Amino acid sequence: MSSSKPDMTTTAGRIEDLRNRLDEAQAPVGQAAIDAVHEAGAATARERVLKLLDEGTFVETDALAKHRVEAYKMDKSKPSTDGVVTGYGLIDGRRVCVFSQDPTIFDGQIGEVYADKILKIYDLATKTGVPLIGIYDSTGPRWKEGIVTAHLQAQILRAATRASGLIPQIAVVAGDAAALAAATVPLADITVMAQGATVHVTSADVVGKVAATETTAEELGGSAVHATETGLAQLVAANDVEAVELARTVVSYLPLNNKAASPLGAEASGSGIDLDTFMPDDDNQSYDATDVIAAVTDGDFFELSASYAGSVVTGFAHVGGRAVGVVATQPSVLAGCLTRDAARKAARFIRTCDAFNLPIVQFVDSPGFLPSVEEERSGSAAAAAALAYAFAEAQVGTITVVTRKALGPSYALLGSKGLGADLVFAWPTAQIALADAATAAEAIGTDETQYAEENLTPYVATERGLVDAVIEPNATRNRVLEGLRLLERKVAYPAQKKHGNIPL
C-alpha cells in the first residue's frame, strides 16, 4: 500500500486507489487479528477459501462491501468485506461458489450487508448450476443491527431451501455456527466439522441460565456430539484446513447440479478379495461389509457418518469409474439390525444421491429391526417409513445385492423389487424370508429345520421374480458394473404433484 495519497485526478491515481482498497480488504481489521487467528492454531476465512480452491482460481465478489449502520457507534468501524468472504473458483478444474465467514470482524456476527453477500452468492450458484460450499464461523446475529438480521437470516434459509436438490450444498463448520446459522447448516447435503467447532441454536450462557446448570458450546453441539449422537456431521476433521480438504473430496464425487452427469474417476479393479470364499459358513458370524464394498467398487469407498448408526454404512465410491452411492448393512454392528437412526441415516443419504443422479448400490445382510422397547418408543416405525419413502421415490438407477439375511422388514425396506429396485441380485448364501427359522416355525407350527431348508434360501423369492438372478459372489462386480451401464439409460416420469410428505 502506497504511503502517499493517490492523485485522484488521474487514471493512474484511481487505479492505485483501487489497489489500495483491495489490499486493505485482504486484512480488513489489521495484521494483528490475522496473527491472533494463527496463534490459536486456525486459518483465516480467506486462507480457508484459498485452501479449498485450486491455486490461483479464486475470484472474489463484494470485497469492498461495508455495512451502512450508524447507530451504536457502528459508523466508527466499517471494515471491508463486512465479515464474510464470497466468490467463486475451481476445485479440480470444476467451477464452484463459496462463502467463508470471518470471525475477526464483529465476531463473525451476521449483519445486513453480510447477509446480502451470502444471498448474492446463493443466487449466482443456483442460476449458473454449480455447487455452493459454505464455511461457517459465526456467533450469530449482529445485535446492533437489530431484527433486520433475523429477517435476512430467514432469507438465507429460504435461499438454501430453494437451492436444495438443484445444486450440491456442502457445509464446512470451521468454528462456531450459532443461533439461526445453526439452522442453515443442516440444509446442506453434506456437513463437515472440524474438531473444536460447534453447531448449536441456543448459546451455552442462555442454556445455563434456564437449566440452572453450567454447560459449554462443545457439550451442546461439538463435533463429537454431531458425529455420534445427532448424525449432522457426516465427516469430522482434525482442524479447519483438513475440513476444507475433505470438502474438496466430497465435491469430486458429485455432479455440478441436478441435471449434470457425475464426474468420472479413473477406472480401477476391486480389492481382489475372493468373495466366493468370503462369507462365513456360520450364519451368525459377523464380517465387515466394507470388505464387500471394496471388492465390488473401484476401491475408493469414501464413507460418510462412520461414527453414527454404525449398523448401516453409507458413502460414495466409483464402479468402473462411475460415481455411485453405496448403502450397506453392517453385520459387525448389532448383527446388521436396523435402528431408528440407521434407517434415517440411510434415507437421508438415498435422497441426496437421488437428487444428484448418483445410482444407488445396496448390500443387504440384516435380520430386521432391533427388538427394543427404547427403539419402538424412539420412533422406529416412522424411521422405517422414511427409509421406504426415500427408496420408493428414487428415480436414479438402483441395484440391490442380498449377501445373506434379508428377513421381514429388512427385505422390504432395503431395496426390494416391491419398493422399485431396478435390479436385485442374491448370493447363494442369501436368506430371503419373513423371519428367521425359529420365529417363523413357531408362528406357523412347523419344524424349524424343515422351514429353514425350504425357505431360508434365495430361491423361493427368485421363483416369484423378486430376485432377478442368483449369482456367484465373485461375479458381483461385473453384474453391478453392467447393471450401472444399462441404468444410465433409465428414464423416470414422476407424478405431477407439489411434493410428497415424507415422515420426518
Explain this structure to me?
The chain is α/β, with parallel strands linked by helices. It has two domains: 14-253, 2-enoyl-CoA Hydratase, Chain A, domain 1 (Alpha-Beta Complex), CATH 3.90.226.10; 275-487, Alpha-Beta Complex (2-enoyl-CoA Hydratase, Chain A, domain 1), CATH 3.90.226. The protein has helices at 11-26, 31-39, 45-52, 112-128, 148-163, 180-184, 204-211, 217-221, 223-228, 240-253, 289-296, 340-355, 373-378, 380-392, 409-413, 437-444, 448-455, 459-463, 476-487, and strands spanning 59-61, 84-91, 94-101, 132-138, 169-178, 190-194, 198-200, 235-237, 302-304, 312-319, 322-329, 360-366, 398-407, 423-426, 431-433, 469-470. A hairpin with a 2-residue loop joins β10 (312-319) and β11 (322-329). α12 packs parallel to α14. The mean pLDDT is 94.
Compact description:
The chain is α/β, with parallel strands linked by helices. 37% of the residues lie in helices and 18% in strands. The strands form 2 sheets. Strands 1, 2, 3, 4, 5, 6, 7 and 8 form an 8-stranded mixed sheet that branches. Strands 9, 10, 11, 12, 13, 14, 15 and 16 form an 8-stranded mixed sheet that branches.
Which SSEs are present, and which pair or pack?
Blueprint (H helix, E strand, L loop, with lengths): L10 H16 L4 H9 L5 H8 L6 E3 L22 E8 L2 E8 L10 H17 L3 E7 L9 H16 L5 E10 L1 H5 L5 E5 L3 E3 L3 H8 L5 H5 L1 H6 L6 E3 L2 H14 L35 H8 L5 E3 L7 E8 L2 E8 L10 H16 L4 E7 L6 H6 L1 H13 L5 E10 L1 H5 L9 E4 L4 E3 L3 H8 L3 H8 L3 H5 L5 E2 L5 H12 L17
Parallel strand pairs: 3-4, 4-5, 5-6, 5-7, 6-8, 11-12, 12-13, 13-14, 13-15, 14-16
Antiparallel strand pairs: 1-2, 2-3, 9-10, 10-11
